[in-house]
Specification:
Blueprint lengths: L1 H23 L8 H6 L18 H12 L8 H22 L3 E2 L2 E2 L1 H5 L1 H20 L7 H28 L7 H28 L2 H28 L2 H4 L5 H4 L5 H9 L1 H7 L6 H13 L2 H22 L7 H10 L5
Antiparallel strand pairs: 1-2
Length: 336
């Protein structure tokens, strides 16, 4: 069902985004290839790339919320394109900051072209996102476009705030659970909140309804990240694609781990070790199980999920909600 939902918009969305990039990005001296490569459109030699990179979840959420609010989704393509370009801009810079060699199974932009070029390509992607937002005036009133622009501006600040906190937390021994929720509010949930809000705003031009959709997207984003945190420790490697020990070995400050650091002195003592072996990882999971860290995280996930669905009901959607609900179900189908 999800492939059908994403496929419903895929052709028009892809056309719109490629058109926006092509009209505004020169190919002089290989400048444009880095952006196209990051979008998954080409190989590093600028030949077409045929495999899928990224699921386009954020623009799909925006267009679904637009239809659920009885909008014409084609009028929201400019905003959908903008959030996808913005998301990919953040990934280019994240890979530099995290010194990540791979993204979607391919070498990252900085790994191929160097850090300086990758920063510049990310900046170009950022500018293209705003160029796409500007095209909203072709479909909605100037007043609506300015409202959307303001929301988009605020989202950019939230993304950088979340990234700042994420990097800062790496230097701290302990982080409060509340501070962690604040971090994922910016780093993960803010863009999903904006997608839902923009979709509804473009459909209705009603600030109150759009705010309910924003609350829906924000809480879905927080719940989604918590689900990811749980899978990072207790998930099946065949499903998640990574060892359950990865988050523990890397000392990732996920929700279950922060709960463990708050609730268990033994867990705190274990985490002071400079390196972990296989026995240490098993012991860490045992300690987390002893304090019911997984149960706590599941309860928090359920709490934010229920907040999201309550906000969606409060928005009183006038369009069909079945596709949006099916899409949300897909986001949470990953098994523990």
């Amino acid at each position: 069902m999800v492939k059908q939902i994403i496929g419903r918009y895929a052709v028009e969305f892809d056309r719109f985004m490629r058109e926006t990039v092509a009209k505004n990005l020169t190919d002089e001296n290989g400048y444009g290839v880095m952006v196209r490569y990051a979008m998954g459109w080409v190989n590093e030699d600028d030949t077409p790339y045929s495999k899928t990179t990224g699921k386009r979840l954020r623009p799909t959420l925006l267009l679904l919320c637009n239809e659920t609010a009885s909008g014409n989704w084609k009028h929201a393509l400019a905003a959908a394109s903008a959030v996808e370009l913005l998301h990919n801009f953040s990934l280019i810079h994240d890979d530099i900051q995290d010194v990540s060699d791979l993204r979607h199974g391919r070498p990252t932009v900085w790994k191929i072209w160097g850090t300086a070029n990758a920063i510049n390509a990310g900046d170009a992607m950022f500018a293209l996102a705003y160029t796409s937002m500007q095209r909203l005036t072709e479909y909605v009133s100037t007043e609506q476009a300015l409202k959307a622009w303001q929301i988009f501006n605020h989202t950019n600040l939230e993304l950088t705030r979340g990234q700042h906190l994420d990097m800062r937390f790496e230097t701290l021994d302990k982080v409060a659970v509340g501070d962690y929720i604040s971090m994922i509010h910016g780093k993960t949930a803010a863009l999903l909140a904006t997608c839902a809000q923009l979709g509804a705003l473009i459909a209705t031009d009603n600030d109150e309804i759009a705010q309910y959709y924003r609350d829906f997207g924000l809480n879905i984003g927080i719940a989604f990240q918590i689900r990811d945190d749980i899978l990072g420790i207790w998930g099946e490697p065949d499903i998640t694609g990574k060892s359950a020990a990865t988050d523990i070995i890397s000392r990732k400050k996920s929700l279950p781990i922060l709960y463990g650091l708050e609730q268990s002195n033994l867990f705190v003592q274990l985490y002071t070790k400079p390196t972990f072996n296989d026995k240490d990882v098993l012991y860490a999971v045992e300690l987390l199980d002893n304090i019911n860290a997984q149960k706590y995280a599941r309860e928090q996930e359920a709490l934010y999920y229920e907040k999201a669905m309550t906000a969606l009901e409060a928005a009183q959607p006038t369009g069909d909600t079945s596709m949006l609900r099916g899409f949300v179900d897909f986001l949470f189908q990953r098994d523990y």
